[in-house]
């Protein structure tokens, strides 16, 4: 069978090209087409390709051409997504920023604040909470997460990292670890109930978040993009309890530090996670007709 690949770029001089395959639309997969295109143009490895039908609907590499509505002698449209970087690498870079930035501000106070001082119990607790949070995220990236999408455009890593490196990195570290919150300062005074209560809520939320990530991991066999309906702790109420618990964890940091910088980061992060949660919730309901109707996106009984 033959398939013609045309570029969505009208100025392209490499396309259209015609590829030949042994088999039928029912046996040839979109991945076979992507690999054949890579053989002809090594620069365009499968993760760099976006293949669509004549209606510009993206073709899933897990499906056959017939399942994708493509027949012999049809035209498939190609778009170059540009150089790609693995999602796992992206996450390691994103979360690695705060793990480097926070110790710099915490231990080099003489450099950033022009003088040394003793950190208050609040600052020590917040430092431990932030470092453990991002260390947990790094470990989850390596040992827990299974990604449905292998890569993303390389240039996006800078945009994605800015959120963590600046908002939860420089912004949070500079203002929380400053001398105005140092030992003996009124602004840093916390009762034991306030301090340890915040730590307890944070620890519960972080552990709950980990349990949610393990549940999601177990739904996807290694090396697949399989999707299934998640059930269990948190999922009976919302589609994305992992986002809910992360918001609760950072809210505990906010109320312990009382710093506007922590609240700023939490508001921005929660807003972004809510957008993602709504998108995932709609996707679940679209892909699974039997998806529980009583679930909300991220906030139980609300939205």
Automatic annotation (TrEMBL):
Bilayer topology term: Multi-pass membrane protein
Pfam families for this protein: Steroid_dh (PF02544)
Domain (3-oxo-5-alpha-steroid 4-dehydrogenase C-terminal): residue spans on this chain: 151-302
One of the record's GO molecular function terms: oxidoreductase activity, acting on the CH-CH group of donors
One BP term from GO: very long-chain fatty acid biosynthetic process
Subcellular location per the Swiss-Prot or TrEMBL entry: Endoplasmic reticulum membrane
UniProt-listed PROSITE patterns: S5A_REDUCTASE
Domain of life: Eukaryota
Any one Gene Ontology cellular component term annotated for this protein: endoplasmic reticulum membrane
Transmembrane domains' residue ranges: 162-181, 193-212
Entries under InterPro entries matching the protein: 3-oxo-5_a-steroid_4-DH_C (IPR001104), SRD5A/TECR (IPR039357), Ubiquitin-like_domsf (IPR029071)
Keywords: Lipid biosynthesis, Lipid metabolism, Membrane, NADP, Oxidoreductase, Transmembrane, Transmembrane helix
Homology family: Belongs to the steroid 5-alpha reductase family.
Protein name: 3-oxo-5-alpha-steroid 4-dehydrogenase C-terminal domain-containing protein
Natural source organism: Phycomyces blakesleeanus (strain ATCC 8743b / DSM 1359 / FGSC 10004 / NBRC 33097 / NRRL 1555)
């Amino acid at each position: 069978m033959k398939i013609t690949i045309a570029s969505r770029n009208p100025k392209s001089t490499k396309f259209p090209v015609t590829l030949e395959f042994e088999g039928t639309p029912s046996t040839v997969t979109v991945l076979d087409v992507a690999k054949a295109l890579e053989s002809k143009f090594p620069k365009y490895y499968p993760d760099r390709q976006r293949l669509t039908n004549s209606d510009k609907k993206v073709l899933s590499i897990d499906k056959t051409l017939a399942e994708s509505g493509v027949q012999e002698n049809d035209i498939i449209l190609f778009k170059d997504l540009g150089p790609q970087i693995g999602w796992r690498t992206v996450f390691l870079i994103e979360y690695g920023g705060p793990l480097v930035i926070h110790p710099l501000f915490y231990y080099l106070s003489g450099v950033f604040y022009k003088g040394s001082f003793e950190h208050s119990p609040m600052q020590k607790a917040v430092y431990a909470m932030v470092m453990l949070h991002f260390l947990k995220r790094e470990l989850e990236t390596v040992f827990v997460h299974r990604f449905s999408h292998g890569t993303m455009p390389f240039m996006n890593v800078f945009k994605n990292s800015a959120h963590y490196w600046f908002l939860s990195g420089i912004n949070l570290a500079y203002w929380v670890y400053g001398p105005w919150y140092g030992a003996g300062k009124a602004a840093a005074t916390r009762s034991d109930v306030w301090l340890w209560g915040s730590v307890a809520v944070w620890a519960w939320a972080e552990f709950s978040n980990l349990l949610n990530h393990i549940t999601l991991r177990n739904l996807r066999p290694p090396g697949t993009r399989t999707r299934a309906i998640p059930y269990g702790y948190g999922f009976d109420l919302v589609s994305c309890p992992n986002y809910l618990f992360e918001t609760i964890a950072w809210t505990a940091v906010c109320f312990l530090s009382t710093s506007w910088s922590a609240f700023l980061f939490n508001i921005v992060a929660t807003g972004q996670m809510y957008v993602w949660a709504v998108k995932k919730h709609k996707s679940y309901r679209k892909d699974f007709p039997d998806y529980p109707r009583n679930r909300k996106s991220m906030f139980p009984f609300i939205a």
